[in-house]
Amino acid sequence: MQISSLMSSGGAEAALAMRQSMFKSADADGDGKLSATEAQSMKPSGPPPGPPPAMAGGTMGSLLQAQEEFQRPSLEDLFAEADADADGSLTFDELEAAGSRRMEALQATNEAQPAEATGAIDWEALLAALTEEKDSEAA
Questions:
Q1: CB within 8 A of 103, min separation 6: which ones?
Q2: Neighbours of 83 (CB within 10 A)
Q3: Does residue 59 lie in a domain region?
Q4: Cα–Cα distance, 97 to 31 (Å, whole number)
Q5: Which residues touch 35 (CB under 8 Å, ≥6 apart)?
Q6: Is the pLDDT of residue 13 over 70?
Q7: Any idea what the CATH number is for the domain that residue 39 is in?
Q8: pLDDT for position 37
């Protein structure tokens, strides 16, 4: 299912209203912008990311944890990426634009997958993909 199809039929308006409400809730001083501290309050709570406890040990757990850490940018990096005017705060429009860019990149990545993909990946393909992604981010 395409991401765009999930947002049709009024879902987009409800999602926008939810994001606006979250933004307003996080904007503790009511200035219409989020400081880094205020943005921290939008960070999801819950168990830490990583492999399920049953897989936490051993080689598979280590690989899953490494993949998770490699793929997940820090909140500081996300904040800096979204802060288009580099003023140290985020407006709702800056946050929305950054979210749109991330969604477009995710959708492009998903669409680039071969139709015959099985979901399995060998070690060489994993290393090549991770290296390619890291190189493109460095450029």
A1: 3
A2: 20
A3: yes
A4: 19
A5: 29, 88, 89
A6: yes
A7: 1.10.238.10
A8: 92
Strands (E), the chain: 33-34, 90-91
Which residue from 40, 44, 43, 33 is spatially nearest to 94, judged by alpha carbons? 33
pLDDT in tens, 15-64: 899 999 999 999 999 999 999 999 888 876 665 555 455 555 566 666 66
Residue 76 lies in a domain: yes
Residue 27 CB-density burial (10 A; 0-12 exposed, 13-18 middle, 19+ buried): buried
Please give the Cα distance from 38 to 89 (Å, whole number): 9
Q: Give me the phi and psi of 90, to 5 degrees please.
A: -115, 130
Q: Could you tell me if residue 135 is inside a domain?
A: no
DSSP one-letter code for 53: G
3-state SS class at 90: strand
